Amino acid sequence: MGLLRTTMLTLSAGALAVAGIPGATAAPPSQLTVAKQAATSRSAAPVDHRKQVATVTLLTGDRVRLTTAPGGVITAVPMHGPGRDGIAFSTRRHGSEIEVLPSDAAPLVASGKLDRRLFEIAGLVRAGYDDAKTTQIPLIIRSAGERVSALAAPSGVAVRRSLPSVGASALVTQKSSAAQFWRWLAGPMANSRPESTVRSQQTLASGVQQVWLDGPVRETLDRSVPQTGAPRAWKLGYTGKGVKVAVIDSGIDKTHPDLAGAVVAERNFSTSPVVTDRNGHGTHVASTITGSGAASKGRYKGMAPDATLVSAKVLDDTGAGTESRLIAGMEWAADQGVKVANISVGSTFPTDGTDPIATALNRISAQKRTLFVVAAGNLGPDNQMITSPGSADAALTVGAVDAKGATAEFSSRGPRSGDLALKPEIAAPGVGIVAARARQSTPDEPVGDSYARMSGTSMAAPHVTGGAALLAQLRPTWTPAQLKALLISTAKPLAGESAVAQGAGQLDPGRALTQRVNVEEGSLSLFMRWPHDSVTTRKLTYRNTTASDATLQIGVQVHESVGGGPAPAGLIRVGAKTLRVPARSTAQVTVIADPKVALTDVTYDGRITATGPGIAVQTPFTLGAESESYDVTIRAIDLNGKLVTSLSQLQPAPAVVGDLQTGDLYTLRATAKGLVARVPRGTYTFGTIVATPAGIKPTAYTLLSAPRIDVQGASRTVTLDARQAKLVRTQVDAPDATPNLTIFGTVEVLGGWPFTTLLTLEGPHRNPLYALPTTQVTGRTYQFAMFRSLESSRGTYDLTFGNEGRVPTSPTYTVRDADLSRMNVSFATAGAALNLNGVWHREAQLPGDSTMGLGWYYDLPLPSNRTHLFTPAFAGKPLPWTDNLDVRTTISQVWYTEFHDPVVYEPGQVVDRTFTPAAFRPEVKGFRHSDGTMSFQMSPLAPSLRGGSLMIWNPTGVDGTSTLRRNGKVVATSTDPFTLEVGGQPRTSADYTLDVTAKVAVPWARYATEVNGHWAFTSAAPADYVEQITMLNSLVLGTFDGSGRAPSGRAFRLGLPIMRPGGQGTIRDVSLSVSYDDGRTWAKAPVGQDSNGNWAAEIRHPNKPGGYVSIRTSAADDRGGQLTVTSIRAYGLS
Fold first, then answer.
1. Has the keyword Hydrolase been applied to this entry (predicted)?
2. Most CB atoms within 10 A, among 204, 246, 338, 430?
3. Which residues have a Cβ under 8 Å from the Cβ of 811 and sit 6 or more positions away?
4. What is the average per-residue pLDDT within 973-998?
């Protein structure tokens, strides 16, 4: 089987993309690579916690909270949906991907019936499918002969459209009713406890065959048209007249002078209320195909100016859409009888051409005789980066070149992922292309009022589409395959440019129209399986349509695809160097791939050339040579002594082996002999959790791990016997401790990629857990890890145990209360009349470079108190803990989240902590000064937190302004009291002031109803590009009750810590004034310092229960920093 690639795909055009589904690879995995994500650029903006936490409702109705803590530590916490207690969850992290799979969905994912992307949490968040952004789950469901609307689906499901090309329907299900939908979809397996799903039948609801995520989609001529040679075609009388062409994009602005009368049909498949183009991308593409150039006196004329257009608007006015809308647009366009269709969209990740969009394209092209011309993608110079639907077999896939014919840096290179087939097949201009501008669009590079300049393979594709329209005028009865082959074979190669970058070369429509000797095969894709002991041959058929015989000189150009080095001599040869093609007949030549030579690479590409007087025929090809590869067989034996031959017994799904050097994962297939994967020579790791059914008893889970499998020169078989595993035990002092949750498994790093194999059991489960001991692992991160939450009369235990470098021979972990840290926690509110509740998330960040966190959540009423005992270390190393609190009225109505920075605790340490502590006042949470840009993040309503901050999710009811001055002059103002950003600031040092005012009327708080803050500081752009600085902030601390109130009628002490930039500088001039009449009158309070330098004030509250206290705090430091903050009704009186 092939390399596992989990991708969340988006469609774009101009800068490209459209979601596809990673399919099983057809070629040996030694040919496959996964490009790691580039390091994130350092931003000039302050940290936005909204990007650090997200909740995703799964198709099963379960929810997953994904948190990214400082340092990139990721924690994914699954939460049971309604009626789903007892469901287990497996978690697999691979790099930036993190998959959380409920146990009753795992068999369906393993069998390919359920799309894995439905459970890839980070991808769902990136795609905008988290709960904060959508209340629906979009799906594509393939059914057996029936439309989904006829399949008795439950309420909450809306069928959007039929997709006959893939035998499917697009629908959405409401997240609020996802659990009900899952019960219908999964049938008896739904909500079944793990012991019921092990070895169960892997079926879906009657009539349903497969379920995919309906992924998001987004959009990716000055010298360009003459560069292709189109004017030569015009002189011959070919202008596309009588040819109908489809543009499947963001619509077309048919009011543009260049497109007057060109659009003969249009349909809107997007969510936009209008069919016209208000984005601009589709109009630009359309005019490149058939623009008249009327608005430029002919300068920006399209390729086929007399062709007519049909417009399928599949992207809305922001350039967003879904896979199903794209497929529906393709189907409709083909039904209009178009000869050629342009798709300047594609996935942001490479695919192997088996995803739904590529599948639909192949079927529509064959059934409707439509040639689809598709952009290759904009993923840059690495190999195997062709995106969907350009990865489809039937697509004519187009790379981009610049004005000199060189491949554009951004243009995706081939070959196709999986089988290493030749892609792209052709190239065309795609850099700095000037074409029509939609009237209601706002392009980044306008060219006058009527045009815009864009770059991308999106711009290259319509040049080829126009060229195909010219050819279709000449050959109206030709099939898509014939048109495709002729355009490819007559392309013009540029010396030094590879076939995996440009295919046959740059489009040459003039030659395509006039050359009468051509080849019937557009391209060749060859593959040699290890051990390269057989010759591979293919036939090329040359057709001569002239009245005279033609003599062709056959040549071969071949080189390494990576690096472009020379190929071994004799690797590719032809059966004849001279070929006579009789008049009005054909002749064949044999292409031979000889593996007997010493190979230097795994992928080669080149061109077979056939030349003669006035004849130049190109046949681009790829040759994939599987690197030295062997089978790895895992014989996993369960606790009953039975060999595992079903993937339904394994979690996570699918089972994989991982390359220790590259981090690549290779999927295992189930066979009668065990689990088998074909892998390149190298060193691998394997880990899985085997479920052993025990009749009426709870299922037992066994962690089986082989952290080092050497594959050197022969196939390997590894036997892992669960009967040799050891029972995992936890012992604490509390005799009545019962489990809330258990997470256990392994955490590794492979080639720099975090990789986890984890199982989560929630609730008071009694499932026995076992782990097979391993030998010691050195030289990389390998951890056996377990997190357990136990409830007892002494409090709640949060325990993170484990071992570095091995699964131990005795996985029994005993801890004494005296060796644990203890936190006495008070959960307060801002005095709201609402019935609030909270979700407290506790996360332990494992040591090392795995950037992995383990943790859980606790539902609790507000206000309330808890006691937690927790482990301060993991395998002898300090263990940072992060605590966050969501405050809400319902699951869907979260008002704010309180974030706390990671803290390391000592054994025996006792900590008192209050969440949402009074007093409430404004603060600056973040400030960054980069080269020319200053960015601020403020909170008008902030509790007095040390080492944390509060993020308000719904700012409705908070109205105000923010103003920045430089040396006394206003440089920026905003009606947003939360953020302010200004560019164009000099690098040199200057004196700045920031003023923020706001009125607050939110339902979850009755404090800080009116605030203003004034900060003064000196700043210059730092030499290292960006630096985050914390401005002065004041906290007001006291012994408040759970509703943020202090006792009335008595003395009260207020702590006044001043938070300083970087902890440096000396604080001076701290003052406090208080008001009991909402700021009409103020009284200054005495402020002093204790022996430790802590500032505090002693005040006496009036005897006014139910009243409020307003505060004004001022401070300055010896570095020029000043602050004055005023908060009306900062806290209450009891």
1. yes
2. 430
3. 726, 727, 728, 729, 771, 784, 786, 803
4. 90
Domains, the chain, with CATH or none = 57-63+76-214 (no CATH), 217-514 (3.40.50.200), 524-625 (2.60.40.2310), 784-905 (2.60.40), 921-1133 (no CATH)
Specify whether the CB–CB gap between 711 and 660 falls below 8 A. Answer: no
Whole-angstrom distance, CA of residue 72 vs CA of residue 871:
22
- DSSP class of residue 657 equals E
Rounded Cα distance, 937 and 928, in Å: 9
Eight-state DSSP code of residue 40: P
Mean pLDDT of 689-718: 91
Integer Cα distance of 464 and 376 in angstroms: 12
* Neighbour count for residue 49 (Cβ, 10 Å): 20
How far apart, in whole angstroms, are the C-alpha atoms of residue 592 and residue 569? 13
Residue with tokens 């005296």: 818
Q: Which helix (H) or strand (E) holds 331?
A: helix 323-335
DSSP for 693-734, written as a single string: EETTEEEEEEEEEEEEEEE-SS-EEEEEEGGG-EE-EEE-S-
Element (H, E) at 150: none
Give 867-886 pLDDT, tens digit per residue: 999 999 999 999 999 999 99
Residue 12: what pLDDT? Answer: 36
The DSSP element (H or E) to which 502 belongs, if any, is helix 499-502
Q: Tell me which residue of 708, 722, 879 sits closest to 806, measured CA to CA.
A: 708
Reading the block at residue 98, the tokens are 């993190």
- Model confidence band, residue 1027 (pLDDT cutoffs 50, 70, 90): low
Contact 400, 411 (CB under 8 A): yes
pLDDT in tens, 86-96: 889 999 998 88
Cα angle value 708/713/716 (rounded, 5°): 50
Q: What are phi and psi of 110, to 5 degrees?
A: -60, -35
Closest by alpha carbon to 371, among 346, 411, 351, 343? 343
Residue type, 645: T
Task: Return d(Cα 1112, Cα 1110) in angstroms, integer.
Answer: 7
pLDDT digits (tens, 9 = 90+) for 178-230: 999 999 998 877 766 555 555 455 678 878 999 999 988 776 644 578 888 88
What is the rounded distance in angstroms from the CA atom of residue 1072 to the CA atom of residue 930?
Answer: 34
Instruction: Read off the tokens for 256.
Output: 């543009």
Nearest to 553 by CA among 571, 576, 573, 531: 576
Output Rg (C-alpha) for the chain, integer angstroms: 33
Q: Which two tokens stand for residue 386?
A: 């062709």
Q: Beta strand pairing status for 656-659 and 682-694?
A: antiparallel
Enumerate the active-site residues: 249, 281, 458
- C-alpha 221/C-alpha 294 separation (Å) is 13
pTM of the model: 0.85
Angle at 1021 between CA 1020 and CA 1026, to 5 degrees: 140
Strand ranges, E, within 1001-1093 = 1010-1019, 1028-1029, 1033-1034, 1045-1046, 1051-1055, 1058-1059, 1067-1075, 1083-1085, 1087-1089
